[in-house]
Amino acid sequence: MNVIKTEIEGVFIIEPRIFGDERGYFFESYSQREFDEKIRPINFVQDNESKSRYGVLRGLHFQKGRHAQSKLVRVVQGRVLDVAVDIRRGSPTFGHHVAVELSADNKRQLFIPRGFAHGFSVLSEEAVFQYKCDNAYAPDEEGAIAWDDPTINIDWRIPAADVILSEKDKHHPKLDEAPELFDYKTDYYA
Description:
single chain, five-stranded antiparallel sheet, mainly beta, six-stranded antiparallel sheet
């Protein structure tokens, strides 16, 4: 796999090596050994999949404290704009984000470490989104940031009038109002 550093330390774009011929293609979507060597040792414990239509925006979500999650995300059908926001207070990139188009065609993946909020918008008619998590989902430890926080200033690449949100995602606080975030000096992997 080809690992591409982003402008935020710890967030990586992963491009697989694709082998294709007249029959179709093959690629290794995940290798524990390579991931541990090139990114960080990690133990993914849960795989999730969602299907959404154009305009759906999910996020910006995270889990708090000892329930924090790293995610490795990819799209198997359609296209999304995937976003990771640094929410580690004291970080030199606090409030900054990485936005990457992930699609069934480019087969890219994005690694989002603990200490980041995550979200995506669906750019195609439909998208099937898969993600690995290194910690189990804990509903009582959910946190979130407003998708349209002007200080983060994410261009979701869909008109605001077309954005489709869950009822919960309509009411998240802005970054500077969030009650519980992460601390840059704390190792959430320890």
